[in-house]
Design a protein that fits this description.
Largest sheet: 5 strands, mixed
Number of strands: 14
Radius of gyration: 21 Å
Strand content: 5-15%
CATH class of the largest domain: Alpha Beta
Number of helices: 16
Structural class: alpha/beta
CATH architecture of the largest domain: 3-Layer(aba) Sandwich
Strand order of the largest sheet: 2-8-7-6-5
CATH superfamily of the largest domain: Type I PLP-dependent aspartate aminotransferase-like (Major domain)
Number of domains: 2
Helix content: 25-40%
Distance between the termini: 54 Å
Bound molecules: ligand F0G
CATH topology of the largest domain: Aspartate Aminotransferase, domain 2
Length: about 450
Protein backbone atom coordinates (compact mmCIF):
# COMPACT_ATOMS: atom_id res chain seq x y z
CA UNK A 1 0.00 0.00 0.00
CA UNK A 2 2.74 2.46 0.93
CA UNK A 3 5.25 2.41 -1.90
CA UNK A 4 3.69 3.86 -5.01
CA UNK A 5 5.50 2.02 -7.81
CA UNK A 6 3.09 2.79 -10.61
CA UNK A 7 1.48 6.02 -11.66
CA UNK A 8 -1.85 6.99 -10.05
CA UNK A 9 -4.06 6.51 -13.13
CA UNK A 10 -7.74 7.30 -12.56
CA UNK A 11 -9.70 4.27 -11.26
CA UNK A 12 -12.59 4.99 -13.65
CA UNK A 13 -13.31 5.59 -17.30
CA UNK A 14 -15.29 8.50 -18.73
CA UNK A 15 -18.88 7.93 -19.84
CA UNK A 16 -20.10 11.48 -20.47
CA UNK A 17 -18.27 14.71 -21.19
CA UNK A 18 -19.04 18.39 -20.78
CA UNK A 19 -17.53 20.56 -23.49
CA UNK A 20 -15.29 23.45 -22.46
CA UNK A 21 -15.16 26.84 -24.09
CA UNK A 22 -12.12 29.08 -24.27
CA UNK A 23 -12.62 32.85 -24.42
CA UNK A 24 -10.28 35.19 -26.30
CA UNK A 25 -7.89 37.37 -24.35
CA UNK A 26 -10.08 40.43 -25.02
CA UNK A 27 -13.17 38.62 -23.72
CA UNK A 28 -11.33 37.60 -20.57
CA UNK A 29 -10.17 41.15 -19.99
CA UNK A 30 -13.74 42.44 -20.17
CA UNK A 31 -15.12 39.62 -18.01
CA UNK A 32 -12.52 40.20 -15.27
CA UNK A 33 -13.13 43.94 -15.23
CA UNK A 34 -16.92 43.41 -15.07
CA UNK A 35 -16.35 41.03 -12.15
CA UNK A 36 -14.45 43.68 -10.17
CA UNK A 37 -11.28 41.56 -10.34
CA UNK A 38 -12.90 39.04 -8.01
CA UNK A 39 -12.91 35.49 -9.41
CA UNK A 40 -16.05 34.73 -7.35
CA UNK A 41 -17.95 37.23 -9.48
CA UNK A 42 -17.01 35.72 -12.86
CA UNK A 43 -19.69 33.90 -14.79
CA UNK A 44 -18.86 30.22 -15.01
CA UNK A 45 -19.46 30.48 -18.77
CA UNK A 46 -16.43 32.76 -18.99
CA UNK A 47 -14.16 30.20 -17.29
CA UNK A 48 -12.03 27.61 -19.09
CA UNK A 49 -10.66 25.43 -16.27
CA UNK A 50 -12.43 26.07 -12.98
CA UNK A 51 -10.25 25.66 -9.89
CA UNK A 52 -12.22 28.08 -7.73
CA UNK A 53 -13.13 25.29 -5.36
CA UNK A 54 -13.40 21.55 -4.85
CA UNK A 55 -16.76 22.21 -3.20
CA UNK A 56 -19.82 20.83 -4.97
CA UNK A 57 -17.80 20.44 -8.16
CA UNK A 58 -17.14 16.68 -8.14
CA UNK A 59 -18.22 14.36 -10.93
CA UNK A 60 -20.62 11.77 -9.56
CA UNK A 61 -20.31 8.09 -10.45
CA UNK A 62 -22.88 6.10 -12.41
CA UNK A 63 -23.86 4.50 -9.08
CA UNK A 64 -24.55 7.90 -7.58
CA UNK A 65 -26.57 8.96 -10.62
CA UNK A 66 -28.65 5.81 -10.46
CA UNK A 67 -29.15 6.55 -6.75
CA UNK A 68 -30.58 9.93 -7.78
CA UNK A 69 -33.34 8.05 -9.58
CA UNK A 70 -34.18 6.25 -6.34
CA UNK A 71 -35.10 9.45 -4.52
CA UNK A 72 -37.93 8.98 -2.05
CA UNK A 73 -39.29 12.52 -1.99
CA UNK A 74 -41.42 12.13 1.10
CA UNK A 75 -41.57 15.12 3.43
CA UNK A 76 -40.90 12.92 6.44
CA UNK A 77 -38.97 9.71 6.95
CA UNK A 78 -37.54 9.37 3.44
CA UNK A 79 -35.93 6.01 2.77
CA UNK A 80 -32.82 7.85 1.55
CA UNK A 81 -32.36 9.49 4.93
CA UNK A 82 -32.16 6.08 6.59
CA UNK A 83 -29.64 4.92 3.98
CA UNK A 84 -27.52 7.99 4.67
CA UNK A 85 -27.78 7.50 8.42
CA UNK A 86 -26.71 3.86 8.13
CA UNK A 87 -23.74 4.50 5.80
CA UNK A 88 -22.47 7.52 7.75
CA UNK A 89 -22.61 5.52 10.97
CA UNK A 90 -20.80 2.60 9.40
CA UNK A 91 -18.04 4.73 7.81
CA UNK A 92 -17.56 7.44 10.46
CA UNK A 93 -18.93 5.81 13.61
CA UNK A 94 -20.76 8.75 15.21
CA UNK A 95 -24.09 7.89 16.83
CA UNK A 96 -26.64 10.44 15.63
CA UNK A 97 -26.96 12.33 12.34
CA UNK A 98 -28.87 15.39 11.19
CA UNK A 99 -28.73 16.31 7.50
CA UNK A 100 -28.23 19.96 6.54
CA UNK A 101 -28.21 21.75 3.21
CA UNK A 102 -24.39 22.08 3.39
CA UNK A 103 -21.56 22.41 5.91
CA UNK A 104 -22.36 25.89 7.17
CA UNK A 105 -25.92 24.82 8.02
CA UNK A 106 -24.42 22.30 10.45
CA UNK A 107 -21.94 24.90 11.76
CA UNK A 108 -24.78 27.33 12.46
CA UNK A 109 -26.79 24.83 14.48
CA UNK A 110 -23.81 23.47 16.39
CA UNK A 111 -22.43 26.93 17.24
CA UNK A 112 -25.82 28.11 18.48
CA UNK A 113 -26.18 25.07 20.72
CA UNK A 114 -22.71 24.89 22.23
CA UNK A 115 -21.40 28.48 22.38
CA UNK A 116 -22.33 31.08 25.00
CA UNK A 117 -21.34 34.75 24.84
CA UNK A 118 -17.71 35.17 25.90
CA UNK A 119 -16.69 31.58 25.16
CA UNK A 120 -13.37 30.70 23.54
CA UNK A 121 -13.18 28.17 20.70
CA UNK A 122 -9.64 26.98 20.01
CA UNK A 123 -9.01 25.39 16.63
CA UNK A 124 -6.31 24.28 14.20
CA UNK A 125 -6.52 27.40 12.02
CA UNK A 126 -9.74 29.15 11.16
CA UNK A 127 -12.09 28.44 8.30
CA UNK A 128 -14.15 31.39 7.02
CA UNK A 129 -17.71 30.15 7.62
CA UNK A 130 -16.81 28.11 10.71
CA UNK A 131 -15.24 31.05 12.52
CA UNK A 132 -18.01 33.44 11.51
CA UNK A 133 -20.69 31.13 12.99
CA UNK A 134 -18.63 30.86 16.17
CA UNK A 135 -18.40 34.66 16.36
CA UNK A 136 -22.08 35.21 15.54
CA UNK A 137 -22.93 32.85 18.44
CA UNK A 138 -20.87 35.08 20.78
CA UNK A 139 -17.62 33.11 20.82
CA UNK A 140 -14.04 33.99 19.99
CA UNK A 141 -11.86 31.74 17.87
CA UNK A 142 -8.25 31.15 19.00
CA UNK A 143 -5.73 29.60 16.62
CA UNK A 144 -3.80 26.73 18.26
CA UNK A 145 -2.26 25.19 15.16
CA UNK A 146 1.51 24.55 15.29
CA UNK A 147 3.63 27.53 14.16
CA UNK A 148 5.04 25.71 11.13
CA UNK A 149 1.54 25.72 9.57
CA UNK A 150 2.01 29.46 8.99
CA UNK A 151 5.30 28.88 7.16
CA UNK A 152 4.83 27.84 3.51
CA UNK A 153 8.43 26.57 3.30
CA UNK A 154 8.31 24.25 6.29
CA UNK A 155 8.03 20.66 5.05
CA UNK A 156 6.78 18.99 8.24
CA UNK A 157 4.28 16.36 7.01
CA UNK A 158 1.57 17.10 9.61
CA UNK A 159 1.19 20.86 9.57
CA UNK A 160 -2.46 20.48 10.63
CA UNK A 161 -1.33 19.46 14.13
CA UNK A 162 -2.45 21.23 17.27
CA UNK A 163 0.18 22.85 19.50
CA UNK A 164 -0.85 21.34 22.82
CA UNK A 165 1.12 23.97 24.75
CA UNK A 166 -0.93 26.73 23.13
CA UNK A 167 -4.08 24.88 24.15
CA UNK A 168 -2.92 24.35 27.72
CA UNK A 169 -2.12 28.05 28.03
CA UNK A 170 -5.63 28.94 26.84
CA UNK A 171 -7.19 26.54 29.32
CA UNK A 172 -5.11 28.04 32.12
CA UNK A 173 -5.94 31.59 31.10
CA UNK A 174 -9.70 31.24 30.57
CA UNK A 175 -10.63 28.07 32.47
CA UNK A 176 -11.99 24.91 30.84
CA UNK A 177 -15.59 25.98 31.45
CA UNK A 178 -15.13 28.88 29.01
CA UNK A 179 -14.12 26.42 26.27
CA UNK A 180 -17.18 24.50 25.06
CA UNK A 181 -15.22 22.57 22.46
CA UNK A 182 -12.07 22.42 20.36
CA UNK A 183 -12.70 22.87 16.65
CA UNK A 184 -10.50 20.42 14.74
CA UNK A 185 -10.35 20.23 10.97
CA UNK A 186 -8.83 17.32 9.13
CA UNK A 187 -6.86 18.43 6.00
CA UNK A 188 -6.67 22.04 7.17
CA UNK A 189 -8.01 24.05 4.25
CA UNK A 190 -6.54 27.48 4.98
CA UNK A 191 -3.11 25.99 5.74
CA UNK A 192 -2.98 24.43 2.27
CA UNK A 193 -4.79 21.14 2.82
CA UNK A 194 -2.35 20.04 5.53
CA UNK A 195 -3.19 16.91 7.55
CA UNK A 196 -3.26 16.31 11.30
CA UNK A 197 -1.50 13.18 12.55
CA UNK A 198 -3.19 10.39 14.48
CA UNK A 199 -0.60 10.77 17.23
CA UNK A 200 -1.50 14.43 17.69
CA UNK A 201 -5.22 13.63 17.72
CA UNK A 202 -4.71 10.96 20.39
CA UNK A 203 -2.74 13.39 22.55
CA UNK A 204 -5.41 16.03 22.07
CA UNK A 205 -8.07 13.51 23.11
CA UNK A 206 -6.16 12.68 26.30
CA UNK A 207 -5.74 16.37 27.19
CA UNK A 208 -9.37 17.32 26.49
CA UNK A 209 -10.63 14.30 28.48
CA UNK A 210 -8.71 15.57 31.49
CA UNK A 211 -10.49 18.92 31.23
CA UNK A 212 -13.83 17.58 30.07
CA UNK A 213 -13.79 19.53 26.78
CA UNK A 214 -15.44 18.24 23.61
CA UNK A 215 -13.68 17.90 20.26
CA UNK A 216 -15.81 18.81 17.25
CA UNK A 217 -14.36 17.57 14.00
CA UNK A 218 -14.71 19.51 10.74
CA UNK A 219 -14.60 16.35 8.65
CA UNK A 220 -15.07 18.00 5.27
CA UNK A 221 -11.84 16.43 3.91
CA UNK A 222 -11.29 13.56 6.32
CA UNK A 223 -10.54 10.94 3.63
CA UNK A 224 -7.70 13.03 2.19
CA UNK A 225 -6.27 13.42 5.68
CA UNK A 226 -6.51 9.65 6.19
CA UNK A 227 -4.56 9.08 2.97
CA UNK A 228 -1.67 11.22 4.24
CA UNK A 229 -1.66 9.30 7.53
CA UNK A 230 -1.47 6.05 5.55
CA UNK A 231 1.41 7.38 3.43
CA UNK A 232 3.40 9.23 6.09
CA UNK A 233 2.62 8.12 9.65
CA UNK A 234 4.43 5.20 11.20
CA UNK A 235 2.20 2.25 11.94
CA UNK A 236 -0.48 3.10 9.39
CA UNK A 237 1.22 1.87 6.18
CA UNK A 238 -0.86 -1.28 6.02
CA UNK A 239 -4.18 0.18 7.15
CA UNK A 240 -6.91 1.07 4.68
CA UNK A 241 -8.12 4.66 4.30
CA UNK A 242 -11.53 3.46 5.47
CA UNK A 243 -10.08 2.10 8.73
CA UNK A 244 -8.05 5.25 9.30
CA UNK A 245 -11.08 7.51 8.73
CA UNK A 246 -13.01 5.61 11.39
CA UNK A 247 -10.14 5.80 13.85
CA UNK A 248 -9.81 9.59 13.35
CA UNK A 249 -13.51 10.04 14.09
CA UNK A 250 -13.27 7.84 17.20
CA UNK A 251 -11.09 10.45 18.96
CA UNK A 252 -13.69 13.17 18.53
CA UNK A 253 -17.20 13.73 19.92
CA UNK A 254 -19.04 14.90 16.85
CA UNK A 255 -18.56 16.50 13.46
CA UNK A 256 -19.81 18.97 10.93
CA UNK A 257 -19.56 17.87 7.33
CA UNK A 258 -19.67 19.68 4.03
CA UNK A 259 -20.42 16.65 1.87
CA UNK A 260 -19.73 18.80 -1.20
CA UNK A 261 -16.04 17.92 -0.88
CA UNK A 262 -14.84 14.43 0.10
CA UNK A 263 -18.30 12.88 -0.06
CA UNK A 264 -18.51 13.52 -3.81
CA UNK A 265 -21.86 15.28 -4.08
CA UNK A 266 -22.87 18.64 -5.53
CA UNK A 267 -24.90 19.68 -2.48
CA UNK A 268 -25.38 18.45 1.08
CA UNK A 269 -23.92 18.20 4.54
CA UNK A 270 -24.71 17.04 8.05
CA UNK A 271 -24.12 17.38 11.75
CA UNK A 272 -23.28 14.16 13.54
CA UNK A 273 -22.77 13.73 17.27
CA UNK A 274 -22.43 11.13 20.02
CA UNK A 275 -24.20 13.02 22.80
CA UNK A 276 -27.96 12.48 22.96
CA UNK A 277 -28.74 15.86 24.54
CA UNK A 278 -26.89 17.82 21.87
CA UNK A 279 -28.59 15.71 19.24
CA UNK A 280 -32.01 16.44 20.70
CA UNK A 281 -31.33 20.16 20.72
CA UNK A 282 -30.02 20.00 17.15
CA UNK A 283 -33.15 18.12 16.07
CA UNK A 284 -35.19 20.99 17.51
CA UNK A 285 -33.13 23.62 15.73
CA UNK A 286 -32.82 21.98 12.34
CA UNK A 287 -36.54 22.42 11.74
CA UNK A 288 -36.13 26.17 12.27
CA UNK A 289 -33.15 26.71 9.97
CA UNK A 290 -32.98 23.85 7.47
CA UNK A 291 -36.02 21.57 7.32
CA UNK A 292 -37.32 18.46 9.06
CA UNK A 293 -34.65 16.34 10.81
CA UNK A 294 -35.02 13.63 8.16
CA UNK A 295 -34.19 15.90 5.23
CA UNK A 296 -32.48 19.08 6.53
CA UNK A 297 -32.88 21.10 3.33
CA UNK A 298 -32.06 18.25 0.95
CA UNK A 299 -34.10 16.28 -1.54
CA UNK A 300 -34.29 12.53 -0.97
CA UNK A 301 -32.19 11.98 -4.09
CA UNK A 302 -29.44 14.25 -2.71
CA UNK A 303 -29.24 12.12 0.43
CA UNK A 304 -29.03 8.94 -1.64
CA UNK A 305 -26.17 10.33 -3.75
CA UNK A 306 -24.41 11.35 -0.55
CA UNK A 307 -24.80 7.92 1.02
CA UNK A 308 -23.23 6.30 -2.05
CA UNK A 309 -20.57 9.03 -2.33
CA UNK A 310 -19.45 8.50 1.26
CA UNK A 311 -18.80 4.84 0.46
CA UNK A 312 -16.81 5.70 -2.67
CA UNK A 313 -14.82 8.44 -0.91
CA UNK A 314 -13.01 6.05 1.41
CA UNK A 315 -11.84 3.65 -1.29
CA UNK A 316 -8.03 3.46 -1.44
CA UNK A 317 -8.01 3.53 -5.25
CA UNK A 318 -10.14 6.66 -5.39
CA UNK A 319 -8.18 8.67 -2.88
CA UNK A 320 -4.78 7.67 -4.22
CA UNK A 321 -5.69 8.99 -7.68
CA UNK A 322 -7.39 12.08 -6.27
CA UNK A 323 -4.42 13.20 -4.20
CA UNK A 324 -2.04 11.86 -6.87
CA UNK A 325 -3.42 14.35 -9.37
CA UNK A 326 -2.94 17.23 -6.92
CA UNK A 327 0.65 16.15 -6.28
CA UNK A 328 1.28 15.88 -10.04
CA UNK A 329 0.27 19.53 -10.51
CA UNK A 330 2.27 20.67 -7.48
CA UNK A 331 5.44 18.95 -8.63
CA UNK A 332 5.09 20.51 -12.04
CA UNK A 333 4.76 23.99 -10.48
CA UNK A 334 7.82 23.31 -8.31
CA UNK A 335 9.81 22.26 -11.38
CA UNK A 336 9.08 25.72 -12.84
CA UNK A 337 10.36 27.40 -9.67
CA UNK A 338 6.90 28.66 -8.65
CA UNK A 339 6.65 29.24 -4.87
CA UNK A 340 3.93 26.93 -3.51
CA UNK A 341 3.03 25.81 0.00
CA UNK A 342 4.97 22.71 0.96
CA UNK A 343 4.36 19.89 1.47
CA UNK A 344 1.73 19.59 -1.28
CA UNK A 345 -1.70 19.22 0.36
CA UNK A 346 -4.72 17.09 -0.41
CA UNK A 347 -7.19 19.23 -2.33
CA UNK A 348 -5.18 21.81 -4.21
CA UNK A 349 -2.02 23.76 -4.82
CA UNK A 350 -1.53 26.97 -2.88
CA UNK A 351 0.78 29.60 -4.34
CA UNK A 352 2.62 31.81 -1.88
CA UNK A 353 1.61 35.20 -3.31
CA UNK A 354 3.94 37.13 -0.99
CA UNK A 355 6.85 35.29 -2.61
CA UNK A 356 5.40 35.35 -6.13
CA UNK A 357 4.73 39.13 -6.02
CA UNK A 358 7.14 40.39 -3.33
CA UNK A 359 6.83 43.99 -4.56
CA UNK A 360 3.09 44.19 -3.71
CA UNK A 361 2.24 44.96 -0.05
CA UNK A 362 -0.45 42.90 1.69
CA UNK A 363 -2.69 46.00 1.76
CA UNK A 364 -2.72 45.89 -2.04
CA UNK A 365 -3.91 42.28 -2.11
CA UNK A 366 -1.15 40.22 -3.76
CA UNK A 367 -3.18 37.00 -3.79
CA UNK A 368 -6.31 38.68 -5.18
CA UNK A 369 -4.13 40.30 -7.85
CA UNK A 370 -2.44 37.03 -8.79
CA UNK A 371 -5.76 35.16 -9.08
CA UNK A 372 -6.97 37.87 -11.50
CA UNK A 373 -3.75 37.69 -13.54
CA UNK A 374 -3.95 33.92 -13.93
CA UNK A 375 -7.50 34.21 -15.20
CA UNK A 376 -6.48 36.95 -17.63
CA UNK A 377 -3.66 34.72 -18.94
CA UNK A 378 -5.62 31.54 -19.62
CA UNK A 379 -9.18 31.54 -18.28
CA UNK A 380 -8.13 29.35 -15.35
CA UNK A 381 -10.13 30.42 -12.30
CA UNK A 382 -8.49 30.23 -8.85
CA UNK A 383 -9.31 31.74 -5.44
CA UNK A 384 -7.74 34.23 -3.08
CA UNK A 385 -6.97 32.84 0.39
CA UNK A 386 -5.23 35.74 2.09
CA UNK A 387 -6.13 39.08 3.58
CA UNK A 388 -9.45 39.41 1.72
CA UNK A 389 -10.65 35.99 2.92
CA UNK A 390 -9.43 36.66 6.47
CA UNK A 391 -11.82 39.62 6.77
CA UNK A 392 -12.11 41.88 9.80
CA UNK A 393 -12.09 41.24 13.54
CA UNK A 394 -15.25 41.91 15.53
CA UNK A 395 -13.71 45.33 16.42
CA UNK A 396 -13.48 46.20 12.71
CA UNK A 397 -9.71 45.87 12.26
CA UNK A 398 -8.40 43.81 9.37
CA UNK A 399 -6.95 40.41 10.16
CA UNK A 400 -3.45 40.21 8.62
CA UNK A 401 -2.93 36.48 8.01
CA UNK A 402 0.65 35.26 7.64
CA UNK A 403 -0.42 33.16 4.68
CA UNK A 404 -1.31 35.15 1.57
CA UNK A 405 -2.22 32.40 -0.88
CA UNK A 406 -3.85 31.69 -4.21
CA UNK A 407 -5.62 28.34 -4.16
CA UNK A 408 -5.78 26.10 -7.21
CA UNK A 409 -8.42 23.68 -5.97
CA UNK A 410 -8.84 20.49 -7.94
CA UNK A 411 -12.41 19.21 -8.36
CA UNK A 412 -12.67 15.45 -7.82
CA UNK A 413 -12.81 13.21 -10.91
CA UNK A 414 -13.33 16.18 -13.27
CA UNK A 415 -10.12 17.23 -15.06
CA UNK A 416 -7.33 15.24 -16.71
CA UNK A 417 -3.56 15.28 -16.47
CA UNK A 418 -3.41 17.38 -19.67
CA UNK A 419 -5.50 20.06 -17.92
CA UNK A 420 -2.96 20.02 -15.09
CA UNK A 421 -0.19 20.69 -17.66
CA UNK A 422 -2.05 23.70 -19.09
CA UNK A 423 -2.65 25.12 -15.61
CA UNK A 424 1.04 24.87 -14.71
CA UNK A 425 2.14 26.37 -18.05
CA UNK A 426 -0.21 29.33 -17.63
CA UNK A 427 1.08 29.98 -14.11
CA UNK A 428 4.62 29.89 -15.47
CA UNK A 429 3.73 32.55 -18.07
CA UNK A 430 2.43 34.86 -15.34
CA UNK A 431 5.52 34.10 -13.24
CA UNK A 432 7.77 35.19 -16.11
CA UNK A 433 6.17 38.66 -16.24
CA UNK A 434 5.55 39.06 -12.51
CA UNK A 435 7.63 42.26 -12.18
CA UNK A 436 5.19 44.13 -14.41
CA UNK A 437 2.16 43.26 -12.24
CA UNK A 438 0.75 45.98 -9.96
CA UNK A 439 -1.53 45.54 -6.93
CA UNK A 440 -5.17 46.53 -6.45
CA UNK A 441 -7.45 48.50 -4.17
CA UNK A 442 -10.82 47.42 -2.78
CA UNK A 443 -13.68 49.59 -3.97
CA UNK A 444 -16.61 47.67 -2.44
CA UNK A 445 -16.61 45.64 0.77
CA UNK A 446 -19.60 43.60 2.01
CA UNK A 447 -20.21 43.17 5.74
CA UNK A 448 -19.86 39.39 6.03
CA UNK A 449 -17.47 36.97 4.26
CA UNK A 450 -16.26 39.82 2.09
CA UNK A 451 -14.18 37.67 -0.27
CA UNK A 452 -17.34 36.40 -1.95
CA UNK A 453 -18.56 39.75 -3.24
CA UNK A 454 -15.85 42.40 -2.78
CA UNK A 455 -14.85 44.45 -5.84
CA UNK A 456 -11.42 45.79 -6.77
CA UNK A 457 -9.68 47.94 -9.30
CA UNK A 458 -6.09 47.93 -10.52
CA UNK A 459 -3.72 50.56 -9.16
CA UNK A 460 -2.69 52.79 -12.06
N1 LIG B 1 -15.32 23.63 6.54
C1 LIG B 1 -14.35 23.59 5.61
C2 LIG B 1 -13.00 23.10 5.98
C3 LIG B 1 -14.62 24.01 4.30
O1 LIG B 1 -13.66 23.96 3.39
C4 LIG B 1 -15.92 24.48 3.98
C5 LIG B 1 -16.23 24.96 2.65
C6 LIG B 1 -16.89 24.50 4.98
C7 LIG B 1 -16.56 24.07 6.25
C8 LIG B 1 -18.29 25.02 4.73
O2 LIG B 1 -19.00 24.12 3.99
O3 LIG B 1 -19.51 25.33 1.87
O4 LIG B 1 -20.74 23.27 2.52
O5 LIG B 1 -21.13 25.38 3.72
N2 LIG B 1 -15.34 25.27 1.82
C9 LIG B 1 -15.50 25.68 0.45
C10 LIG B 1 -14.16 25.96 -0.16
C11 LIG B 1 -16.51 26.74 0.23
O6 LIG B 1 -14.15 26.40 -1.29
O7 LIG B 1 -13.14 25.70 0.48
P1 LIG B 1 -20.16 24.56 2.96
Amino acid sequence: MKTIKRSWAEPYKIKMVELLKMNSSAQRKKAMKDAGYNTFLLKSDDVYIDLLTDSGTSAMSDHQWSGMMMGDEAYAGSRNFYNLERVAKEVYGYKYLIPTHQGRGAENILSKILIKKGDIIPGNMYFTTTRLHQELAGGKFEDIIIDSAHDPENEFPFKGNVDLNKLEKLIKKHGADKIPYISIATSVNMAGGQPISMKNLKELRALTKKHNILIIHDMTRVAENAFFIQQKEKGYEMRSVKEIVKEICSYTDGATMSAKKDALVNIGGFLTINDWNIYEEARNMVVVYEGLHTYGGLAGRDMEAMAIGIGESVSDDHIRARVGQVIYLGEKMLSYGIPIVKPIGGHGIFIDAKKFLPHISQDNFPAQTLAAEIYLDSGVRTMERGIVSAGRKTNGENYYPKLELVRFTIPRRVYTQAHMDVIAESTRSVFERKNKIKGMQMIYEPKYLRFFQARFEKIK
